[in-house]
Amino acid sequence: QVQLVESGGGSVQAGGSLKLSCAASGRTFNGAAMGWFRQLPGKEREFVAAVSWTVGIEYYAESVKGRFNVSRDTAKNMVYLQMNSVKPEDTAIYYCAAREHWNADFNSWGQGTQVTVSS
Questions:
Q1: Backbone dihedral angles phi then psi of residue 83, each to the nearest 5 degrees
Q2: Contact 93, 79 (CB under 8 A)
Q3: Quick check: 106 and 36 in contact, CB under 8 A?
Q4: What's the CA gap between 113 and 99, in Å, rounded?
Q5: CA distances (Å), origin 16, targets 11, 40, 41, 50, 109
Q6: How far apart are the first and last CA of the chain?
Q7: Radius of gyration from C-alpha coordinates of the chain
Q8: Digit-coded pLDDT (tens) for 3-19
Q9: Residue 59 burial (C-beta neighbours within 10 Å; 0-12, 13-18, 19+)
Q10: 55: which residues sit within 8 A by CB, 6+ positions away?
Q11: Distance between CA 44 and CA 78 in Å, rounded?
């Protein structure tokens, strides 16, 4: 497993933008994908977006498609989440995650970063 550390969370007004970053350390990541999940207050953690590590194919939850953009920098072992046109319902703790193999679940997690969107 790799160690993952998120940064970039904070408070933003509805309609604004925020960019989250996640650094993988411990070893060079060369697994299947890295991505982002979030946990809204009182709810289970849910998938937000992911990017395949080698090819860069992007995957999005319907709730963020067209507003969020996931990207990666394989040279820096980093994954990013650009959040645009944010809404109050995007308020959550955002977690970075890594998936070593396509036939396995995401199995490395960051500690999470809080994003709060005010109306």
A1: -110, 115
A2: no
A3: no
A4: 19
A5: 10, 19, 21, 22, 27
A6: 38
A7: 13
A8: 999 999 999 999 999 99
A9: middle
A10: none
A11: 25
pLDDT tens digits, one per residue of 10-64: 999 999 999 999 999 888 899 999 999 999 988 999 999 999 999 999 999 999 9
Per this entry, what is the length of the chain?
119
Q: Which uninterrupted H or E stretch holds 87? A: none
Angle at 113 between CA 14 and CA 51, to 5 degrees: 85
Single-letter code of the amino acid located at 112: G
Helix then strand then coil, in percent of the chain rounded to 5, is 5, 55, 45
